[in-house]
Amino acid sequence: RGLNLVFQSYALWPHMTVYNNISFGLKIQKMSHDEIDRRVMDSLRMMRIDMYKDRYPTELSGGQQQRVAIARAVASSPKLLLLDEPLSNLDAKLRIDMRSELQRLHKELGTTIIYVTHDQVEALTMSTKIALFKAGELNQVATPMELYNNPIDLEAADFIGNPRINLVPGKAEMKGGQLVVKSELGGHTFAAEYLTNEQKPSSGEFDCVLAVRPEQILISREPVEGALPVTVYASQPAGSETIVTLKAGEDEFLSKEIGQAHYDIDQKVWAIIDQDKINVYNKETTRLIKRAV
């Protein structure tokens, strides 16, 4: 049928060697001995496990078993490869290594791969296109960057990204084809070209939610024109980055700085927010009404 499946649990035959696990499906297809040997060894070399061809699955680590399962799946040169959470049983370091292996494999094979995962980092780093499901229904299909920059609704926005996206309540109104928004982040006017086709009340104020990624909020220790005066609620250095919780009025939101920075609790600083990077959602429908650009 031109498709193969890599199971979450690997599903290797324990009584067969690595070589025989991979060759089993090819024998069923009644390929010649030479063709089977060529395909098995090519797939083993591709996954860099040809030195383990005579071992049994119980003699291999989890990562090596995973590579065998993938080598078995690609040996028959499928048109479609289905991967069911293939990295969920691996430790964090091995998972990162296997992501790069799968990306390389995809480029070498040119095979369409459908990859199921609950790990958004896997989805964002490996995909050319992501389908996001919610309650069994297809919610959004987009490139990784489009999904990250413009989640289709509040639930998708809150799910994608680490640290989480900032969600700030506000009031919105349509005036002359433009969207005018007021919140603790200040006042903003968005031109029609940034608005989606989602239905919006044509008159009167309505509740909205502003969403902005932590890395889109810059912190200045000195006053800057157009910046929002805020106080530091908490500062969390994390080595390569610093997560700062800021407070404007009653609302708290996160800022992410690359590198190490130190802020005192209750220190007054200024938040610089690029309004082009703000998403706006209709609170009632939860749908995106203003895109980030």
Q: How would you explain this protein's 3D organization?
A:
The protein has two domains: 126 residues, Rossmann fold; 125 residues, Nucleic acid-binding proteins (OB fold (Dihydrolipoamide Acetyltransferase, E2P)), CATH 2.40.50. It is 26% helix and 33% strand. The chain contains seven helices and 16 strands. The strands form four sheets. The protein has a six-stranded antiparallel beta sheet. Helix 1 crosses helix 2 and helix 2 packs across helix 3. The longest helix is centred in the middle third of the chain and has 18 residues. The chain is elongated, with a radius of gyration of 25 Å. 28% of the residues are buried.
**Roughly what fraction of the amino acids lie in strands?**
25-35%
Task: Give the % helix.
Answer: 25-40%
What is the C-level CATH assignment of the largest domain?
A: Alpha Beta
The helix count comes to 7
Question: In short, what is this structure?
Answer:
With 293 residues, the chain is α+β, with helices and mostly antiparallel strands. Helices cover 26% and strands 33% of the residues. The protein has two domains: 126 residues, Rossmann fold, CATH 3.40.50; 125 residues, Nucleic acid-binding proteins (OB fold (Dihydrolipoamide Acetyltransferase, E2P), Beta Barrel), CATH 2.40.50.
Q: What labels would you give this structure?
A:
alpha+beta; OB fold (Dihydrolipoamide Acetyltransferase, E2P); 33% strand; 2 domains; 7 helices; Rossmann fold; five-stranded antiparallel sheet; 293 residues; six-stranded antiparallel sheet
